[in-house]
Amino acid sequence: MIRTAFWRTVIPAGVAVGVLEVTTHLPSQGRAAPIYHTVADEWITPLMRRFLDPETAHEVALEFARRGWSPKHRPSALEQQLRVSSQLFGLTFNNPIGLAAGFDKHGTVVQPMLDLGFGFVEIGTVTPQAQPGNPKPRMFRLTEDRALINRYGFNSVGAEQVAENLAQSIQPGTKGIVGVNVGKNKTTEHAVDDYVQGIRILGPLADYLVINISSPNTPGLRDLQHKDALQPLLEACLAARDALARRVPLLVKLAPDLSDDEITQVAQLCLQLQVDGLIVSNTTNVRPDDLLSYHRGELGGLSGAPLKDKSTHCIRQVYAATNGELPIIGVGGIESGKDVYEKLSAGASLVQVYSPLVYHGPGLVSRLRHELAEHMLQNGYRDISQVIGLDHEELQWKRRYERLKERQKMTCGDEENDAVLVNEQQQQ
Question: What CATH superfamily is the domain 34-406?
Fold first, then answer.
């Protein structure tokens, strides 16, 4: 079925691309050409939504990528005027926009996704043993709401197979960061052992690891976010990470359905245990009253535009709870450069997208990067680090005070230093 649907979509698109190859500047710019992006975003993506069910469309998109037919990133002259790279967890991210887990579950299209313009790609969720996930249908488009509901249930080919896939995908010279998101098998009786096994098998191939304890589609999984269960799980995972030949950053992915107090407790525990960062947030079980789609009542996790404000609130809460000391990757409803800017201002150091690609096409990545550069310049910022945490004015001033204090210590004594700082604060 997938093969038939694939060719039914590809043949007309291939004819169109073939004509464009000889009538435009496509040969000189290849898959980064504007017309290639237009075909992918305005022709192929809508056709796939119209004629293919969501899971089949997902498989066709993966096949496009595997065959080398996906667009490539269109560089932005505006972005090149700015510093959008950052250092986090000892890694260098060349731009702050990443692919969220869920698209490349099995680690088969890492390089094509990096070529698309993502600064980093997160694969998974990967379980230790192969499992089919929940029965189909298990993914639904909420087109009127620019959203998805999925209840995949960690369908995975298993950690060993994913490790083989990654070994083939990540070649010497691969540019970009590759994260691996690990989870537990549905029927396991020992969740901690599953996460430890995933870390041992996939840690050597990952630039960073993510402990997924927040999917709504695996029974009992979100119970692991409670402190009594979370602390021993994290301690075991950190010990497994520390046993690897090299230090791999370990992050935790949280649900947006926790209360503010629960988010604060989890964030502070992660900070206490020296977890490297948090991903905020996963999909939500909550259904806003204003959803319009026929599929709004389906069981599963809701993602896309309706999650945007909720995830941004969670990011802001985590940042405040940890005084900005725990790096955050923000996820949920990002469709524009303005959305990226808002997530960064709330406290995220990086962001991830997935669901909006279904509605905006693969060219969204290049557009997000360009639009983010526009928003940074419009607000007078030329370095991505200046945007992170802007919503937290008190913390921003505290850090500025500390920077000034360090600077003045290098040039004058303590008494003179204090006088200078007081004077500067009064002027501001």
Answer: Aldolase class I (3.20.20.70)
Catalytic residue among 76, 215, 303, 311: 215
- Sort residue 315 into left (φ over 0), alpha (ψ -120 to 50) or beta: alpha
Which tokens belong to 315? 């990011």
pLDDT along the chain (428 residues), means of 10: 60 58 55 90 96 97 94 94 96 98 98 97 98 98 98 98 93 85 96 98 98 92 90 98 98 96 96 98 96 97 98 98 97 98 98 98 98 98 96 84 78 57 51
Q: What pairs with residue 329 in β-bridges? A: 279, 350
CA neighbor of 301 nearest in space, from 233, 188, 426, 310: 310
Tell me the CB-side half-sphere exposure of residue 252, using CA atoms within 13 A.
28
Angstrom distance (rounded) from CA 151 to CA 146: 17
- Which pTM value belongs to this model? 0.90
Which of these, 293, 366, 365, 360, lies nearest to 45 by C-alpha position?
360
Our CA angle for 255, 261, 267, nearest 5°, is 60
Residue 86 annotated as catalytic: no
Total Cβ atoms within 10 A of residue 427: 6
Distances (CA, A) of 300 to 143, 154, 212, 217, 310: 16, 12, 16, 6, 17
DSSP 8-state class, residue 357: H
